[in-house]
Amino acid sequence: MDCLFCKIIAGEIPSTKVYEDEKAYAFRDINPQAPTHILVVPKAHIASVDAISAENADYVAHIFTVIPQIAKAEGLVDGYRVVSNVGQHGCQSVKHLHFHILGGAQLKDTMA
Ligand code: AMP
């Protein structure tokens, strides 16, 4: 499958890994929008939030146990934002489900 994040998970494209286990992979965003900007992805190819189902929801539930571990390891003690863009209106550029962790400074009070 011609998927950028599948290739990153497989090690075919380099990334700066911050976390990995059997179901999740996390790496630093190549174009950071905050002092700390990490992407957390499932190791199964799920296209977006819109493709989450009862069959693959375990990956998503697992990722949401990993996110606070990463935030703690990154020292995001004052908080952070978790974002997942979906489709054209959501400005999703990579069609593999990913959750952005943004933090390390005061973020803007606007969401869109
Ligand atoms: P989105 O626009 O929500 O689909 O987010 C995709 C994110 O992937 C963007 O923030 C990009 O900067 C990031 N990105 C694209 N290519 C790479 C890469 N090779 N390594 C790390 N992050 C990437």
Keywords for this entry:
112 residues, five-stranded antiparallel sheet, globular
Report mean pLDDT, rounded to a whole number. 98
Give the SSE order as H and E letters.
Answer: HEEEHEE
Proportion of helical residues? 10-25%
For the biggest sheet, the summary is: 5 strands, antiparallel
Query: What is the 3D shape?
Result: globular
Task: Note the total helix count.
Answer: 2
Q: What portion of the residues fall into strands of 2 or more residues?
A: 15-25%
The low-confidence parts are none
* SS-derived structural category: alpha+beta
**Gyration radius over CA:** 14 Å
- DSSP, total strands: 5
Oligomer: single chain
What is this structure's SSE topology?
Blueprint: H1 4-9, E1 17-20, E2 24-28, E3 36-42, H2 57-73, E4 80-83, E5 99-103
Antiparallel strand pairs: 1-2, 2-3, 3-5, 4-5
Fold and architecture overview:
A five-stranded antiparallel beta sheet has the order 1-2-3-5-4, covered by helices on one side. Strand 2 (24-28) and strand 3 (36-42) form a beta hairpin. It is α+β, with helices and mostly antiparallel strands and 112 residues long. The relative contact order is 0.23. The model has no long low-confidence stretch (mean pLDDT 98). Helix content is 21%, strand content 22%. The site of adenosine monophosphate has 13 residues, from loops. Adenosine monophosphate binds at residues 4, 13, 15, 27, 29-31, 39, 85, 91-94.
Provide a concise account of the structure shown.
The protein is of the alpha+beta class and 112 residues long. It contains 2 helices and 5 strands.
